[in-house]
Amino acid sequence: MIASLVRIPLSRQEDERGWFCELRRDSMLPKPMPQTNVSFSRAGVIRGLHFHERGQDDLFACLRGTARVVILDRTSGETFVEDIGDENPVAIYVPGTCAHGFEAITDILFCYHVTREYDRADPDEQTVPWNDPRVVHLWSSSTPILFERDAGVAS
Known about the structure:
- This protein has strands at 6-9, 12-15, 18-21, 35-41, 45-51, 58-64, 66-72, 79-85, 90-94, 99-104, 108-114, 126-127, 145-146.
- The two termini are 26 Å apart.
- The strands form 3 sheets. Strands 5, 7, 8, 10, 12 and 13 form a 6-stranded mixed beta sheet that branches. It has a 5-stranded antiparallel beta sheet with strand order 1-9-6-11-4, with no helix packed on it.
- It contains no helices and 13 strands.
C-alpha cells in the first residue's frame, strides 16, 4: 500500500431510525484536520486528480452512494483504488503529495476533511490528468463528466 495512506473501516450503529457513524477522531490521524468540505456529484463525475506540494492531506468519506477513490503515488507510480460508501463504509486518509481523486459511481454525497485550510489567494492544488496512463484503467468510465481543469489530456 502507498506509504502514509491509511484505510479506516467505519463502524455504523444501525436501528430502525437509520445509522450513526463516527467519521473522524483527530487523535487517531497523522495530522489534525481544521477544515471539512462536502460535495454532491452526479453519477459519472470524476473530480481530480489533484495533489498538494505543501502537504495538505485529505480524509475522504462517501456519506451516501458509492464513490471510487483513486490515488497515485507520483514518485513510485504505485496506485490505490477502492469503492467506498453505502456498501463499504470506509474512510481513506490520503497523503497530499499523492495525486488523488474520486468518481461518482452513483449520485454521491462526499465529505473530505483537510489538514490545511484552503487559501484562495495562494492555492496549493496541482493536477494530474484523470486519463494519465498510470490510472486511466482504474476509473469505471472512459467518458466521465469533468470540470474544465480536470479535463487535461495526458501526454
